Amino acid sequence: MYRIDRFNELAKIVAEKRPVNAPMEPRRMTADEKDALLAQFHPDYKQGEFSELKVGPNKGGKVPTQLAELLQAHSRISADSVDLSAPDYDTDVLIIGGGGAGASAAIEADDAGVRSMIVTKLRIGDANTMMAEGGIQAADKPNDSPAIHYVDAFGGGHFAAKPELVAKLVTKAPECILWLNKLGVEFDKEPDGTMVTTHGGGTSRKRMHAAKDYSGAEIMRTLRDEVINRGIPVIDFTAAIEIILDKTGKAAGAVLMNMETKELLVARAKTVIIATGGAGRLHYQGFPTSNHYGATADGLILGYRAGAKLLYADTLQYHPTGTAYPEQIFGALVTEKVRSLGAKLVNIDGEVFMHPLETRDVTAASIIRECTERGKGIKTDQGVGVWLDTPMIEYKNGEGTIEKRIPAMLRMFGKYGIDIRKEPILVYPTLHYQNGGLDIDTYGVTGVENLYAAGEVAGGIHGRNRLMGNSLLDVIVFGRNAGIYAAAKAKETAVPEGLTLEHIAAFDNELDAAGITTDIVSPKLLPDYARRDK
Ligand code: MEZ
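Above: inputs. Below: predicted complex with (2E)-2-methylbut-2-enedioic acid.
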C-alpha cells in the first residue's frame, strides 16, 4: 500500500486554508491575460516542438514533430505487394475503429439497411470513448439552448472551428442524449427522471450529462452491446494499414493486418469511415497521457497518405488534471467533474491560484506557470504538480457527495491508500486529446471521395481547444452522421473496380523528391515502450 505520507506536512497547509478557500469565487482571467498566458506556457506554442511538413496535402503546414515523422514515413507495404483482385471481405461501409464513433456509425449504417463491418486493431471498446469520465454536453434544459452551447464551444475553441460543424454538434446534441438514453445508457437522474447536469470548464450553463464519473465507459458499454446484439460483424485484433483507392481515386476499402499473425487481408467497400481516435500514445513533448493503449494517430496517417487534408493537427489538448502522484497512475485522468463539484486548484502555499473552470488550455497553462515561473508546485519523483483540493467537495456539498458522484476517482486513488475525501491530490497536465484531425465537411467526408472520418480523428469541430464533454458528444453526433451519409452513398455506389495502392508509390516518390530519407514505417499501431537500457 502506498500512502501520501511524504506530502502530509504540505497537505496540512491546504487543509488549514480550506475554510477560507472553499467559499472563494476566484475571478476569471481577461481575454488578454489568457492570450498572454497561452503564448508563454501552453505546449502548443512551443515552436521547437513542431516540424514543417514537406510532402502531402498539408505541405508547408506544421504538426508536432513525432506526428510529422509518422506522416512522412513509408507504408508498411509496397504498392504491388498485396493481391487486391480477390478481397477477403466485401462490404458496403467499412468502419475502421471500434470506439464510440465507429460503433455509432455502424448502428446507423445498420438502420439504413446496408452491410457494414467494423475492423479494430484491439477489441471493440478499446478506445478513448471508454476512458472519458466527466460527461457529455447537450443543451436540453429550459435555461439553455443550442445557440448558447454554440457560443461556448466556438469561443472556447478560439473561434477557429468550422462554424457549420459546431452548428451540427450543438443542434444534434439533445437528440443524441435521447438516442443514448433509449439504447440503455444509465445517465444520472433526479428521482423524477430529470437528467442531472453540471458545469464544465467554459460552459455558461449546466449541460454536462453524466453517468457518475464513468460516462464514457457507460456509453461505450451500451454501444458495444448494441453492435453485438445486431450481429454487425466486428473483426478485432485487425488493423487497417492502408486505404485502398479505386481507379478514379475514390476510397474503396483497406488493407488489413492481423495483429498477431501479421497476415494481410483485403477489405473491399463502397465507402470507408476512419474512426480510429487520437494520438496520446505518441507522448508529444514527453507528456504522459490519459489515452488508451492504441491511441497512435493511425487514422491521420491512413487518410493523409491517401490524399486527405488535415486541419489543426498542430493543436493538442493537455487535460489540466492528470495524476501527478502516485507513480502507478501517472498521467491518468482526474475528471474535470472534480472541479465542477467544487474542488479548487491550490499551490504549495495553500493559495487558490485560478478559477477552477477556465477552459482547458488556459487551466493547463496556468498550472504549468504555477509550477515553472512561479515555482509554487509540489515536487514529486516524476516531476511536479499542484494540489486539487478534493475534500473541498464534501466541505461544500456534504458528506457522501464524492462516493455518489465520482466513485471511480475515489476507487482509483483509494487503491494507493489515498482517500480523496480527506486528502487533496496532486495533478499536472496530461496529453488528452487531439483538437484537430482529418478535415471533414458536414457529411463527414474528407478530401477523398467516399472516405469519411468521425470522432477524435476528425478535425475542425473544436477549433483550437475543446470543451469538456464535447468529445463524447462529437463521437456520437459525427459517428452517427458518418454512418448515415456513408450508408446513403454506398447505396448509390457500384462495387468498386480497379482497386489500387498506387498512391503508396506516389507518396514514396514525393518523399524522395523532398529529400526525406527515413526508415520509419507507419501507421504505428502500438506504442513502443520497450526498455533498451540493458
Ligand atoms: O470531454 C472530456 O475530455 C472529459 C469528459 C474529460 C473529463 O474531464 O472527464
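The chain has 16 helices and 20 strands.
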